[in-house]
Amino acid sequence: MTKQYFKPELIVFDLDGTLVDSSPDLAVAINRMLTALKQENYPEAQIQQWMGNGAKMLIQRALTGEQEPAHTPKKLSEAMHLFSHYYQENICVHSQLYEGVKGGLKQLQAAHINLACVTNKPAQFTTPLLAKIGLKDYFQFVASGDTFPVMKPDPLPLLETAKIFAVETTQSLMVGDSINDMQAGQRAGFKTALVPYGYLGKYTPAELKADYAITNISQLAELFCPRTLH
């Protein structure tokens, strides 16, 4: 954990695996898609391992059963249509906020820190999920996987978000649960904070080399704005 005192002017949050455990609803949609295509279903734990690179890559992984698909599946277009339909129908049935999320966001708001959400999830899913789970009013800006030409781990979404707030990248923090979040943050010149409970994939927390290792979102307020705590 970084020793030098640092108070961010901007905190950017990942969504899935950081603020919201959306894997139950995603797994249902993926398996309904696979059933419609007469393909093998997978347990939720396996589908979790495939999350983090956007819906298209998740679908490709489910169709091939491979973490790094060697080819584009022939049924990809049909599968994407099916998945979109099934997930849109049940976008927030079993998804839940992780512990400490709302309390932590409220405390950061009270400290007048700019808050944004940058996710690889397409906007057609991001917007309704944030609304249904009660988070949309916490963020002054939301970027989805199709907002910019590229997604995390490319730094561009974070760099553009910092520009929108007119905040230096050195005064910004990326909070996430995956290698994509940490790499995007590091490449953009942000400080990084890792939550250990999300979709780490094959990596251990130590391997992701975050500046801050936090147990939940509420710990950010303890680190950066203790005066707001009561």
Structure in words:
The chain is of the alpha/beta class. The protein folds into 2 domains: 10-21 and 96-228, Rossmann fold; 23-89, DNA polymerase, domain 1 (Orthogonal Bundle), CATH 1.10.150. The protein has 9 helices and 8 strands. The protein has a 6-stranded parallel beta sheet with strand order 5-4-1-6-7-8, sandwiched between helices. It has a two-stranded antiparallel sheet with strand order 2-3. It is globular and about 55 Å long.
Summarize the structure.
The protein has helices at residues 23-36, 44-49, 55-64, 76-89, 101-110, 123-132, 156-165, 179-188, 218-224; strands at 10-13, 20-21, 96-97, 114-118, 141-143, 172-176, 191-194, 212-213. It is α/β, with parallel strands linked by helices.
| Helix-strand pattern | EEHHHHEHEHEHEHEEH
Give the structural class.
Answer: alpha/beta
**CATH top level class name of the largest domain:** Alpha Beta
CATH fold description of the largest domain: Rossmann fold
Enumerate the strands of the largest sheet in spatial order, edge to edge or round the barrel: 5-4-1-6-7-8
Assembly of the depicted chains? single chain
Largest sheet: 6 strands, parallel
What is the count of β-strands? 8
- Which CATH architecture of the largest domain is right? 3-Layer(aba) Sandwich
| Helix content percent band | 25-40%
Number of individual domains = 2
- Count helical runs: 9
> What would the average pLDDT be, to the nearest integer?
93
Query: Which geometry do the CA atoms define?
Result: globular
The proportion of residues in beta strands is: 5-15%
By CATH's scheme, which homologous superfamily of the largest domain applies? HAD superfamily/HAD-like
